[in-house]
Design brief:
By secondary structure, the protein is mostly helical. It folds into two domains: 85 residues, Uncharacterised protein YqeY/AIM41, N-terminal domain (Hypothetical Protein Yqey, Chain: A, domain1, Orthogonal Bundle), CATH 1.10.1510; 51 residues, Arc Repressor Mutant, subunit A, CATH 1.10.10.410. Helix content is 78%, strand content 0%. It has seven helices and no strands. This is Aspartyl-tRNA amidotransferase subunit B. It comes from Aneurinibacillus danicus. GO terms for molecular function: carbon-nitrogen ligase activity, with glutamine as amido-N-donor.
């Protein structure tokens, strides 16, 4: 089943279950997907939908950090709940060890030796971990490996 179809089915189920949180999050995601389709002038593939989901998840995580810094526990709890809903649509996340293994492989393949080669490594690595790992964590591991 396509990811968009799954979102639509889950949205219908959330309406039936009167699950306001899930319904709200799915509606926001579907809106972002629709905007992306309008901008691209075509229907999005599952990979492109995953990119939109990843962007939405990153926005929620950034908001969560800001809310925690500001001491707004009410808003932080809401952001955590939204993140949990979004995580249900993401592929299984890679462990830190799996990311380190991939980083090592890509460094060997690209022949990278210093932090100057970081762009080359990240460019080759990100398509392999798309949607399955947080970009900030990947960036941190690549920096550690290249230093």
């Amino acid at each position: 089943m396509r990811l968009v179809d799954r979102l639509t089915n889950d949205m219908k189920q959330a309406m039936k279950d009167k699950d306001k949180l899930k319904l709200s999050v799915i509606r926001m995601v579907k809106s972002s997907i629709k905007n992306e389709e309008i901008n691209n002038g075509k229907e999005l593939s599952d990979d492109e939908v995953l990119t939109v989901l990843t962007r939405e998840l990153k926005q929620r995580r950034d908001s969560l950090q800001e809310f925690e810094k500001a001491g707004r526990e009410d808003l932080a709890a809401s952001a955590r709940d939204e993140i949990n809903v979004l995580m249900g649509y993401m592929p299984e996340q890679l462990s830190e060890e799996e990311i380190r293994t991939l980083v090592s492989e890509v460094i060997q393949q690209t022949g990278a030796s210093s932090k100057k080669d970081m762009g080359k490594v990240m460019g080759a690595l990100m398509p392999k971990v798309k949607g399955r790992a947080d970009g900030a964590l990947v960036n941190k591991i690549v920096q550690e490996s290249l230093s």
